[in-house]
Amino acid sequence: MTTPAFDNSYAALPDTFYTRLDPTPVKAPRLLAFNDDMSYLTGLDRVPPEDRAAVFGGNRVPDGAAPLAQLYAGHQFGTYNPQLGDGRAILLGEVLGPDGIRRDIQLKGSGPTPYSRMGDGRAWLGPVLREYVVSEAMHALGIPTTRALAAVATGEDIWREQGALPGAVLTRVARSHLRVGTFQVFAHRGDTEALKTLTDYAIRRHYPDASGPMDLLRGVCAAQADLVAHWMSVGFIHGVMNTDNAAISGETIDYGPCAFMDAFHAGRVFSSIDQQGRYAYGNQPNIAVWNMAQLATALLQQMSDKDAAVDEATEVIHAMPGQIEEAWRGRFAAKIGISAPDPSDMPLIEDLLALMQKDGADFTNTFRALGDGTARDQFLDRDAFDAWAERWRARIAAEPEPQAVMNAANPAVIPRNHRIEQMIEAAVAGDMAPFERLMTALATPYKLTDPDLAHPPTEDEIVPATFCGT
Ligand code: AMP
Ligand code: MG
């Protein structure tokens, strides 16, 4: 079988970082989805079509791969768990793309590993297709994210709370799978040597200009600050911002209980297990900072001059809320047609969001309608909107092309939760048409190609929560 040239740098690290292990074969692999774009960028287009189900279902390890399960730890909902790791994923290896980018090829749902704890090592079709659609939609929106290369049905039943469900394997592509939790596991063990090796590796792979651990921290904080502002600007709620789900690369990772908001509310939570609202929409900036503080704490374990390093790390972390606010302001200003905002624009943005929250206005459609001149219809309290719009028009009068700025910042279509649920239900019944339809429309989210998909859910279509039973 002709396969891409794997170049496995992680597998070349000491074996404290992982356990070598092949994916567990599945009963009857069947290719459900394959991403041509990603297959070109990974060279995996060279896997012949007739071999794809076997390769991406985990039944055949491609030549040059060095399969392994990665070790990591993490804070889950604020509580430290000393050992997590790939409990149901296998890193096949890394490939270098025609664009010069190194990418991890990972199978998710590929069977048990030494890190599975009580889990079965498997995934069911629902979360696999959710991640496929939402991660590709995020990419099309311009947001850094892991990508989806393939989805394979396994022909096996998976047991979850709901009963027996069809199993599936997702092929995930990432700049890397290094997480805050990858650093935490060695810091907590006091394994300074491994921590240093990992730090050097992360610098080489993601921040080649960084001068050392504190400079690496600076780079990751900047990437995460941008990322969370970007999420906020499209109404995205990650849902499980644990430190094991915070990527060093600055990509969005882990699409378990994520969702895009329909009616705007800053306190919106989807995840059924997030009882305290720790990962509510409006709390995401705080959590991003908290996660980076955990990274700082881990990185500090390797510093010889601890006092100076603590001061430096503290400064980096304290600067992060300001970085997020600046990125947030830039993104939200563009959403109302302002190309070069300054801090005095904040009240205009915040007052609009307050009106939207009061009326439960649809996040995506309200912003999109601003550019079309129909936003008034999105509000119940029209007088309040009119008063705001007067201030707004006065402000954007000085803008050369507010319409163009708005239409480039306000997607027409996002993967709405009820559409995802409908798509999953159809796929379970063997109908992939809704999946294909979503993928087509979401590939160009700033153009309205399928108006039905832009509608908020009707009363009986509303999906109030997403489940972690992945
Ligand atoms: P997540 O909530 O997806 O970020 O996963 C947290 C941890 O639980 C990771 O170590 C996963 O590998 C592990 N995990 C999640 N689901 C399973 C499963 N079905 N079998 C084994 N491990 C799992
Ligand atoms: Mg995870």
Would you summarize the structure shown here?
With 470 residues, the protein is of the alpha+beta class. The protein folds into two domains: 10-174, no CATH class; 179-410, no CATH class. The protein is 41% helix and 14% strand.
Description:
It is globular, with a radius of gyration of 22 Å. The longest helix is centred in the last third of the chain and has 30 residues, at 306-335. The chain has 2 domains: 10-174, no CATH class; 179-410, no CATH class. It has 470 residues and is of the alpha+beta class. 41% of the residues lie in helices and 14% in strands. The model has no long low-confidence stretch (mean pLDDT 96). The two termini are 33 Å apart. Bound molecules: adenosine monophosphate (AMP) and magnesium ion. Magnesium ion (MG) is lined by residues 244-245, 254.
Detail the topology: elements first, then pairings.
Layout: E1 18-20, E2 30-34, H1 36-42, H2 52-57, E3 68-70, E4 74-76, E5 79-81, E6 89-96, E7 102-108, E8 123-124, H3 125-141, E9 147-160, E10 163-174, H4 180-189, H5 192-206, H6 213-233, E11 236-237, E12 259-260, H7 284-300, H8 306-335, H9 346-359, H10 363-372, H11 382-396, H12 402-409, H13 417-428, H14 433-442
Helix pairs in contact: 3-13, 3-14, 4-5, 4-7, 6-7, 6-8, 7-8, 8-12, 9-11, 10-12, 13-14
The structure holds adenosine monophosphate (AMP) and magnesium ion.
Residues 84-88, 115-116, 119-122, 240, 244-245, 254, 256 line the site of adenosine monophosphate.
